[in-house]
Amino acid sequence: MISKKMTEILNKQINEELYSWYLYLSMSEFFMNQNYVGTANWLKLQANEELNHAMKFLNYLNEVGQKVELVKIETPPAEFGNHLEAFQKVVNHELHITKCINDLADLAVSEKDHATGIFLSWYVKEQVEEVGTAKLILERIKMVGTSTNTLYLLDRELGKRA
Predict the structure, then answer these.
(1) Cα separation, 131 vs 92, whole angstroms
(2) pLDDT tens per residue across span 94-133
């Protein structure tokens, strides 16, 4: 059985992951409305990953016999500026989620909650990938600048994500 504190923080993480889903879905729609279909596709797939992350937390709480408490999801912004501004937000958000996951992992260690620690190890590794990918895209955006020709090529590349 996991502690009350761990249960509370895992429930909070479900909300963080659902907000991530909502944020990336909003970003996807923002770029879709500007006809950056590839960027919208990349962000929509990212949103789906975040929803899956939330469901893994939900399922884990069910497996360990703890109550899932869903709370209101904060409304994400609807405007994101340009590619550079949007992907800087993606990087910052992924760094925030990484801190949340690391805090959870630290709590699992301090409480000697080995099962939750093992469960969270996947997320720790996943966040390395998430932050790395977001930073790589951000650096590519910085390379191409604001030229519509180069943004078109970047958009096409982002659209290849399956």
Answers:
(1) 9
(2) 999 999 999 999 999 999 999 999 999 999 999 999 999 9
What is the C-alpha R_g of the chain? 17
Burial class (CB within 10 angstroms; exposed 0-12, middle 13-18, buried 19+) of 68: middle
Query: Phi and psi at residue 120, in whole multiples of 5°?
Result: -75, -20
- Domains of the chain (ranges; CATH) run 4-158 (1.20.1260.10)
pTM tops 0.90: yes
DSSP 8-class letter at 82: S
- Other C-beta atoms lying within 10 Å of the C-beta of residue 84: 16
Contacts of 124 (CB under 8 A, 6+ apart): 101, 102, 105
